[in-house]
Amino acid sequence: MKKFTLFVAIALAFNSFAQSVKEEKITYTYTKLPSHPVQPKPTAYTSSVTAAYEEENQKLMGQYEADKAQAEADYQRDLADLPNKQKAADDKYEREMNAWNEKSTASKIIEKQVLNENNKPVRDNVPQPYRRNVPMPAMKTAYDNNSLASTYLFIDGLQKGAANALNYAVTLQGFESTPAKVLSEVKQEVTRKDGVSTTRNVTYYHIEFTYRHPMSFRVTNAINQEIYAAAPAEFTEFKLYKGAATKTQPSTDISAVVKQMEDKCLQENLKAINHMVNDRIGFERTEKTFDLYFVKSKNESHNDILDAFNAANLGFKMLGTNEAQGSMKLNEAIDIWNKALEESDIANKKARIDKDITVAIYFNLLEAYYALRNTTAADEILKTMGRMDISNRDKKQLEAYEQSYIDLKLRMAANGL
């Protein structure tokens, strides 16, 4: 009986802190400081899109309209002249028939049978006039530039307005694509029938073409001084489109696919430019996803860690809409985590706050301090974790936080914080 009682006591002691660390992916929005803030800080901006090829498009369209007008004029002239040509052909035929009829029968027989000539007149064919086809020139797509600017070009932290504003302009060079190619590939396929496997070669076909849409951008202040400008080199590199493989040769009429890739490329490049501008001079609203840790235990011994998780979860999600309230909830979670760390015993696997939970809390704190820009408190955690023996996975996560804090400190210094 004593042995049984001792066993139960040991089991209860072990299970009192039976626990496992769990995580949940959290996505939140925070304001990222500019890496090169404009001083003094502007309050407004204007944005615009222009196409460098618009003038060339206008020239091509002008020539097209002129060629169409000339083709119509030629057709109307030929149409008006048709009766004259028809009469001339009729008069000629009549003269030649009269001359033919004046020949003797003997002469006609000699020409036909002896000389093998048939000189009987034939009426000239007068062709009907036709409109010359003028093909539409290959022009680059014209967009609603104002709509593009209002949809894709904005500077976070600033309002749209003209007074003392930054001028944010993007120039489109035009979409380009190479002619489509139909490529083939032979693959081996195995079929099985009546217990017998058969291998045969099957030819698959797919379409490939390359495309690009070069662009450039320029941001200037109210007196036209350049603040930031670039023509991203990656936009000049051709990307590859590879269609789905089929067993039948696809049509080479891929105008719909090309148009789809043109729209996709335009949107992706404008979004990339807007990120570059906001990362450098805007107060970019940035989404971040990370793992927020909590503890699952068989009893209520870690309710405080769960309370901190719930407070932090709410705080992170509130940052994008109500920064003050979000910060308050995060600080509430931080207080709970720091109090729990007072019990940390990384050498004791049976401790309530053992090594795994300690590491989890540290990572939670690093994310919370990052969102609150508390680099001083974060530095202490980074140093402490740097001295700990942690898993390779945790080391990689720690290195990522170290890089994030280096970037944050540089941005805070640039903004005088």
Please explain how this structure is put together.
With 417 residues, this protein is of the alpha+beta class. It folds into three domains: 18-33 and 283-414, no CATH class; 45-53 and 144-266, no CATH class; 58-139, no CATH class. It has ten helices and eleven strands. The strands form three sheets. The protein has a five-stranded mixed β-sheet with strand order 3-2-4-8-9. Strands 5, 6, 7 and 10 form a four-stranded antiparallel β-sheet that branches. The longest helix has 49 residues, at 54-102. It is elongated and about 135 Å long.
How many helices? The count is: 10
How is the biggest beta sheet arranged? 5 strands, mixed
| Uncertain runs | 1-17
Distance between termini?
68 Å
- Rg, nearest Å: 40 Å
Keywords summarizing the entry:
five-stranded mixed sheet; four-stranded antiparallel sheet; alpha+beta; disordered N terminus; 22% strand; 3 domains; 417 residues; elongated
Which helices and strands appear, and what pairs or packs with what?
Elements: H1 2-15, E1 19-31, E2 44-51, H2 54-102, H3 105-114, H4 145-152, E3 159-160, E4 166-172, E5 176-177, E6 181-193, E7 196-212, E8 215-220, E9 226-230, E10 239-242, H5 255-281, E11 285-297, H6 303-318, H7 323-341, H8 355-372, H9 375-386, H10 392-414
Parallel strand pairs: 2-3, 2-4
Antiparallel strand pairs: 1-11, 4-8, 5-7, 6-7, 7-10, 8-9
Give a quick summary of the entry.
The protein is α+β, with helices and mostly antiparallel strands. It folds into three domains: 148 residues, no CATH class; 132 residues, no CATH class; 82 residues, no CATH class.
